[in-house]
Amino acid sequence: MNCNHDHSDKNYSRRDFLTKTSLGLGALSLGSLMSPTDAYGSSNFLNLLDSNKQKLPHFAPKAKRVIYLFQSGAPSQLDLFDYKPKLNEMFGQEVPKSIIGEQRLTGMSAGQNSFPMAGSLFNFKQHGNSGAWMSDLMPHTAKIVDELCFIKSMHTDAINHDPAMTLIQTGSQLPGRPSIGSWLSYGLGSDNKNLPEFVVLITKGETGQPLYSKLWGNGFLPSEHQGVQFRAGKDAVLYLENPPGVSANVREEQLKYLNKLQQIQHADIGDPEILARMSQYEMAFRMQTSVPEVMDLSDEPEYIFDLYGKDSKTPGTFAANCLMARKLAEKDVKFIQLYHQGWDMHSTLPKSIRNKSREVDQATAGLIKDLKQRGLLEDTLVVWGGEFGRTNYSQGLLKPDDYGRDHHPRCFTIFMAGAGIKKGITLGATDEFGYNITERPVHVHDFQATLMHLLGIDHEKLTFKFQGRRYRLTDVSGNVVNEILS
User: Which of 93, 225, 278, 292 could be joined to 185 by an S-S link, Cβ 3.0–4.6 Å?
Assistant: First the structure.
């Protein structure tokens, strides 16, 4: 059989091969050096080259969603959870220098000539079958300690609020990294196409350390993965409603034509943010119906308001936001982040912490009870805690009935409950002065690795390539805390 194929390519010499391939590789290298994004279309294309990226979840998850009750300003573990009778015995005496060591102090107490130890003015008791210690500041939470897992050996790298909050929310002290919720949205996607995967609720009217959108930002991930803030009042999401004279049908038709134009532009330019923007437009359209429905508490029975406390009837309070978090969990929102400010107590701590604890105690316990009675606690992870701890010595003048506490990154307490978490246990311990960790340190990155593990994610494998480096939530460290996993 005669073949008329051109065989001219068969007789490549070694020199021809090296010349042709080197030119091709050279162009590829030059393109990547000049601009990876321009050369390959987008950073999303680079992520296709990431061999570590696997189909998610990496393994069977124990949790479907997270409700993170973040207490901004850093609650005093010594007045809430970490009972230290030694401090009461040595009230007013200097903290031994051997205990403080070479620790960096904040500018607020570095100038003090004296560091008198301040025992808590509040009574501590053991509760439940687990015997967990809690002060009388949180009586409602004390009744559910057998549902909780306390970690008393948390520690962080940052000594000031902004970098510490940024670290625990994004994995880095520097701004610009994606937040936890954004990573989960990017990795796991949505279980409800009518609501965002990541919703943020902030207690209305509270003051304290500023809360910046970087804490729930998407960083270098596509913008549809940023947290969406739901506000109390008529307009839960800003600019969501149609302007006067624009009907839902008109808006839908507008989106169809806009989508066609965006598809043309994306085909021409290849920028993934074009598709991300279009995805957000479409989500906003669907949210016009879904958000008013989920924000409406009028169908909640009276006993539910009693469970969360009287504040739950006032939109924007921590209690109302906890109730809202339960409704969002029912709708399968992946990550629900509550922020409650005002825990930064450098002076008059005894008075301030009474008020702050009263605001969160019943609602926190009510949320966990409500999730449990609905069968949602089995696949919902609840987290409660701040960005660092407070010192065992008084900032400023110590009085028999008054003291303040400075920032303390060396140890603090958080608690968790729900999906995949052992009930009624306490992990870690601090010394008798409540200053240093003596058992099982848990770094912020360890906490983040554990949270992702519960959602079926290997924290080392969920990465995103940006500016030539593969990033992950836990940066370059972090280990799963297996002792707390059920």
Answer: 225
In the chain, which stretches have pLDDT less than 70?
1-54, 239-240, 257, 281, 284-285
pLDDT digits (tens, 9 = 90+) for 409-446: 999 999 999 999 999 999 999 999 999 999 999 999 99
Give domain limits for the chain.
65-232+329-484, 235-296
Query: 230 — phi, psi (to 5°)?
Result: -100, 125
Cα separation, 216 vs 278, in Å, equals 20
Give the pLDDT score at 388. Answer: 98
Tokens standing for 99?
A: 């205990």
Closest by CA to 77, choosing from 160, 151, 163, 149, is 151
The residues pairing with 412 across neighbouring beta strands, listed in sequence order, are 154
Of 183, 64, 197, 75, the residue nearest 449 (C-alpha): 183
- d(CA 84, CA 150) in angstroms, rounded, equals 16
What is the per-residue pLDDT for 281?
67
Residue reference for tokens 């995967």:
197
* Eight-state DSSP code of residue 149: E
| Residue 331 CB burial class (10 angstroms; 0-12, 13-18, ≥19) | middle
Q: What is the pLDDT of residue 35?
A: 40
* Per CATH, domain 65-232+329-484 is 3.30.700: no
CB burial string 34-71: b at 16+ within 10 A, e below: eebbebbebbbebeeeeeebeebebeebbbbbbbbbbb
